[in-house]
Automatic annotation (TrEMBL):
Protein keywords: ATP-binding, Cell membrane, Membrane, Nucleotide-binding, Transport
GO MF term set: ABC-type transporter activity; ATP binding; ATP hydrolysis activity
Protein name: Putative sugar ABC transporter ATP-binding protein
Species assigned in the record: Advenella mimigardefordensis (strain DSM 17166 / LMG 22922 / DPN7)
PROSITE patterns: ABC_TRANSPORTER_1 (PS00211), ABC_TRANSPORTER_2 (PS50893)
SUPFAM superfamilies (UniProt xref): MOP-like (SSF50331), P-loop containing nucleoside triphosphate hydrolases (SSF52540)
InterPro entries tied to this protein: AAA+_ATPase, ABC_transporter-like_ATP-bd, ABC_transporter-like_CS, ABC_transpr_MalK/UgpC-like, Mo/tungstate-bd_C_term_dom, P-loop_NTPase
Gene3D superfamilies: 2.40.50.100, P-loop containing nucleotide triphosphate hydrolases (3.40.50.300)
Domain of life: Bacteria
Keyword Cytoplasm: no
């Protein structure tokens, strides 16, 4: 059975330093929610608080209607998968998977090695546990490795043991802390689908921690972006990509990251980019404004089949390409600000450019103004009405 999870103003301090700032979050029963953010932002701490493995100074944690703030980890209907897998090296795969059931169902003397076997009633309980372990092992294709030790397994197999150990408890909530980060790229993609299938099969609530935004975007029904101990934005992967409310979210979601040009608009000289005047729909005296646009929204003006009305155009100095397959990334630099700019274009377009010769220092890039994001000096998104005002081309051009 799945359970909803509610965090109410959860705050955590380590050595007097605030790690979590009154975090509140509602996760529906059966949802797959991912906590994503850079290293050290507090994701694992939040997950460990939900698991009951870390105490916190203030705020409450609910599972369903139950306030579990004071409940010990063993009484919470959760299973956690750790980044390191945390397998017992001296135990076999079967023993590792059986551990949560043995702890829950067998009295302490019945768990003793050798002597425990003679504890009244323990034989039947052990048989039942063995059956459940075999059933779970079969679900994650570990049935032939039940007698191996963790040191004899590959990274992917160890990860499966950790998942099987979490599954055997049949928890209401799965908590996963970067479970794929120790795997190579190919296995990571494969295990990603297995985790998605596990979520579907169990119908349980999943709370998943990663710093990998691709994992977050592909697995989750909703993503919470955590920065500096705060949840900056929660939404569907698509909403975070298309409608970031904060410059940190805009930069974090999307690969390669969003291009940002910093414009200064003072009352005397109007808008400028690193001292060079530019014509942009920025009110004089607006101060510092960040103009964001995604690499896939940038096109090469010379190759455009149709002009974009009111396109924002600027010159760029080409530096290098990275071929991805059908598309390539064009790494450029704005000539005045030296800010890096990345454009994504079909490889065929780049070949067309190359065929013209001597193109690299006279590249004109353009963006549809409807595909731009505007942020104020503090990094908050400026309302769309502002971005929709008339856009004029940047007049400074490489001839
Ligand atoms: N036991 C601890 N004692 C002191 N400080 C800690 C402890 N655990 C975490 N911290 C600090 O709290 C902050 C958040 O750590 P946390 O592990 O939650 O971050 P994270 O977002 O999961 O990072 P990562 O992706 O690198 O695992 C970090 O600055 C970390 O150094």
């Amino acid at each position: 059975m799945a359970a909803s999870v509610r965090l109410e103003q959860v705050a955590k301090y380590y050595a007097g330093k605030r790690t979590l700032h009154e975090v509140s979050l509602d996760i529906a029963a059966g949802e797959f929610l991912t906590l994503v953010g850079p290293s050290g932002c507090g994701k694992s701490t939040l997950l460990r608080i939900i698991a009951g493995l870390t105490t916190h100074e203030s705020g409450r944690v609910y599972m369903g209607d139950r306030d579990i703030t004071a409940s010990p980890a063993s009484e919470r209907p959760v299973s956690m998968v750790f980044q390191s897998y945390a397998l017992y090296p001296h135990m076999t795969v079967a023993q590792n998977i059986a551990t949560p059931l043995r702890m829950k169902r067998l009295p302490a003397p019945a768990r003793w090695p050798l002597l425990g076997r003679f504890w009244p009633g323990s034989r039947k309980l052990r048989q039942q546990i063995d059956q459940e372990v075999s059933a779970v092992a079969a679900q994650v294709q570990l049935q032939n490795l039940l007698h191996s030790r963790p040191s004899q397994l590959s990274g992917g197999q160890r990860q499966r043991v950790a998942v099987a150990r979490a599954m055997v408890k049949q928890p209401d909530v799965f908590l996963m802390d970067e479970p794929l980060s120790n795997l190579d790229a190919r296995l990571r993609v494969h295990m990603r689908s297995e985790i998605a299938a596990l979520h579907q099969r169990t119908g349980a609530t999943f709370i998943y921690v990663t710093h990998d935004q691709v994992e977050a975007m592909t697995l989750s029904s909703r993503v919470a972006v955590v920065m500096d101990g705060q949840i900056v934005q929660v939404g569907t992967p698509r909403a975070l990509y298309e409608d970031p409310q904060d410059i940190r979210v805009a930069r974090f979601i999307g690969s390669p990251e969003m291009n940002i040009l910093t414009i200064t608009a003072n009352a005397q000289h109007g808008a400028s980019l690193d001292g060079e005047p530019v014509q942009l729909p920025v009110p004089a005296g607006a101060g510092v404004i960040h103009l964001g646009f995604r690499p896939e929204s940038v096109s090469i003006a010379d190759l455009a089949s149709r002009p974009i009305p009111n396109a924002i155009r600027f010159s760029a100095i080409f530096e290098r390409t990275e071929v991805l397959g059908h598309d390539a990334l064009l790494f450029c630099r704005h000539p005045h600000s030296n800010e890096p700019l990345v454009a994504r274009a079909p490889v065929a377009d780049i070949d067309r450019l190359r065929a013209r010769g001597n193109w690299s220092d006279r590249l004109i890039l353009q963006i549809n103004p409807a595909q731009t994001f505007w942020f104020d000096a503090q990094g908050s998104r400026i309302p769309p009405a502002y971005a929709r005002c008339e856009v004029l081309p940047i007049h400074k051009r490489v001839s």
